[in-house]
């Protein structure tokens, strides 16, 4: 019962991780630059994401521009696009697989099949967490390096936006969920290896018949 509750808790964490992963991939505020200037009324907030760049004016106007050209983008943005999409796909696969392998569901067949499915789902979650952690870390490093560069003007410097923090938290949720799923299955298999089923040996009938035959010869 405790293992089933732990798997259900990991499944909830994985759901939060999947939703956060998709949200972070689509949000345009990976980089944020607030240019207030001399007049707060005409303040402008510029946001840059993986797929579009948006500008928000304090007057209430909001405009976005899609990034159509992939080759013109920096390498870290191209890598972030690829890895975040892979993270979303793997986490979605993990949700489907663990739904079959969890103990609280009636899918997946026997206990061994459910255990293997649960382990495979946990591996998907771990890979999704790694794929989500790499682009957010790389993107944050580029933002910090650009912010500390003295040759770049202040108006061109950015800070990490909400999408980066959402990506970090989602990757952590996916990693924790994957470790819980894999550990629960591993403990069960390890117990089976340490305590193998006892085998009962019964005397063969051939030896008894042979013994009886020899006794008859001497009578």
UniProtKB/TrEMBL annotation:
Its main location: other. Keywords: Cell junction, Cell membrane, Membrane, Signal, Tight junction, Transmembrane, Transmembrane helix. The keyword Membrane applies. The chain crosses the membrane at residues 84-105, 117-139, 163-186. Residues 1-20 form the signal peptide. GO terms for cellular component: bicellular tight junction; plasma membrane. One of its GO terms (molecular function) is structural molecule activity. The keyword Lipoprotein does not apply. It is a multi-pass membrane protein. Pfam families: PMP22_Claudin. It is found in: Cell junction, Tight junction; Cell membrane. Belongs to the claudin family. Claudins function as major constituents of the tight junction complexes that regulate the permeability of epithelia. This is Claudin. It comes from Rynchops niger. The lineage of its organism: Eukaryota, Metazoa, Chordata, Craniata, Vertebrata. The gene is Cldn20.
